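FORM 12-B: Structure-to-Sequence Request
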């Protein structure tokens, strides 16, 4: 190297290559490449170690979900899981916590919701169809399409296969939209198991089923999975020229209704449900098994949303009204099960109904049958009844469907249609009422299909 004595005069600092052949661009190239690769690896490791969380990003209504999601992924280091195009414009992603605040400020973003887990609303391993008086009806829901947003459906089950119209999977793992858990298959059988002289029969045995898989084989999933399923259903809603008119969600996550379709409290699930309701799909959801008031802070959504018909669980042991069957660990016959969610406010009473939810015998994965208990089992009775009503009232809006089911329901503490006394009637040894509510928490009517 030259040994020239440095000048005392200060010069601007510059990065430059030495003119000596020893430090030529050609000779330095391997070292520059190494530095670039090492720097990239170090940068990647730093990013990988950065704490990240799962969120749902709701974009402005006129945004292109595909284009914006891809752009945001590059700009903010996101891992995209789902893109939504129908019920909301947006995407679900794993977002580095260090970039979350910046993303919230982006003008293309309306709001960001945490992606919380959802749970199945059955409690343990039928009489329900008989109790709601759906047996041997001339109206069998022929041709009405019902989406089962759940763990999928056993596509080869002999009581269900002929009624399955299609489906999609929004859950990880194989099997397509077939059910590896059993919960969705049980729900599907309550709605539309075939009337074929074996197994069980559903409330609407000629309805068509759509298997919308949002939960994996362990029954696990999150709100982003559920919105993916809702987005699929909306793409086949009446407003989009599609056939699906009813959706059942026997699942839930803690949440509340802000009265503004999730726009006030940043609830992407509520915004999605509102759009599906607006697009003509009647939405039926389980009320929850923790004895929650739908108006409380720990209510289950989507059941707590006013755009949904929420369903509580009746304890029925003999498939008939009037309370003369055996009691169970869930309470006396024809009373509301002690665990069920309930409507504590007049507003919630306007979108809640009861249906059998204890020891319900229905289809199971692997072509089998089993008993299950929970509001998960109550909800599909109502979804099947909604299909029956729509079959004779084509084009009815969801709110009309809800009102019709409530109007023909069985009020508590009454001898409904004089069925508990008189000639040929069943007389209760305790009350003479079709069903009762010892807890005083459940004013909702019990589902009856005989009036549809």
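FORM 12-B RESPONSE
SEQUENCE OUT:
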């Amino acid at each position: 190297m030259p040994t020239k004595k440095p000048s005392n005069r200060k010069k601007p600092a510059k990065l430059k290559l030495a003119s000596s052949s020893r430090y030529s661009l050609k000779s330095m190239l391997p070292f520059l490449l190494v530095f670039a690769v090492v720097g990239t690896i170090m940068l990647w490791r730093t990013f990988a170690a950065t704490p990240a969380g799962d969120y749902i990003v709701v974009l402005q209504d006129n945004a292109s979900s595909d284009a914006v999601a891809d752009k945001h992924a590059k700009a903010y280091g996101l891992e995209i899981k789902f893109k939504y195009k129908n019920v909301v414009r947006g995407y679900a992603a794993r977002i580095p916590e260090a970039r979350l605040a910046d993303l919230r400020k982006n003008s293309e973003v309306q709001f960001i919701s945490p992606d919380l887990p959802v749970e199945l609303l059955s409690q343990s391993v039928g009489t329900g169809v008989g109790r709601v008086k759906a047996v041997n009806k001339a109206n069998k829901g022929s041709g009405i399409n019902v989406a089962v947003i759940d763990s999928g459906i056993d596509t080869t089950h002999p009581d269900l296969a002929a009624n399955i119209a299609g489906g999609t999977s929004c859950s990880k793992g194989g099997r397509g939209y077939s059910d590896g858990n059993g919960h969705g298959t049980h729900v599907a059988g309550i709605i539309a198991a075939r009337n074929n002289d074996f197994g069980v029969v559903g409330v609407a045995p000629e309805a068509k089923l759509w298997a919308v898989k949002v939960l994996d084989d362990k029954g696990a999933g999150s709100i982003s999975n559920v919105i993916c399923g809702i987005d699929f259903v909306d793409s086949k809603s009446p407003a989009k020229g599609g056939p699906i008119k009813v959706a059942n969600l026997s699942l839930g996550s803690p949440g509340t209704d802000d009265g503004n379709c999730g726009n006030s409290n940043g609830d992407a699930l509520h915004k999605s449900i509102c759009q599906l309701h607006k697009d003509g799909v009647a939405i039926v959801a389980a009320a929850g098994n923790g004895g929650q008031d739908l108006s409380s802070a720990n209510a289950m959504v989507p059941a707590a949303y006013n755009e949904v018909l929420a369903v509580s669980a009746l304890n029925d042991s003999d498939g008939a009204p009037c309370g003369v069957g055996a009691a169970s660990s869930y309470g006396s016959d024809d009373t509301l099960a002690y665990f069920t969610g309930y409507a504590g406010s007049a507003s919630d009473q306007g979108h809640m109904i009861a249906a059998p939810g204890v020891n319900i015998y229905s289809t199971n994965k692997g072509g089998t049958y089993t008993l299950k208990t929970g509001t998960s089992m109550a909800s599909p009775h109502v979804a099947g009844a909604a299909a029956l009503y729509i079959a004779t009232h084509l084009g009815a809006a969801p709110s009309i469907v809800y009102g019709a089911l409530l109007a023909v329901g069985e009020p508590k503490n009454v001898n409904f249609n004089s069925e508990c006394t008189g000639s040929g009637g069943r007389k209760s040894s305790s009350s003479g009422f079709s069903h009762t509510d010892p807890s005083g928490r459940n004013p909702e009517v019990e589902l009856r299909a005989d009036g549809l």
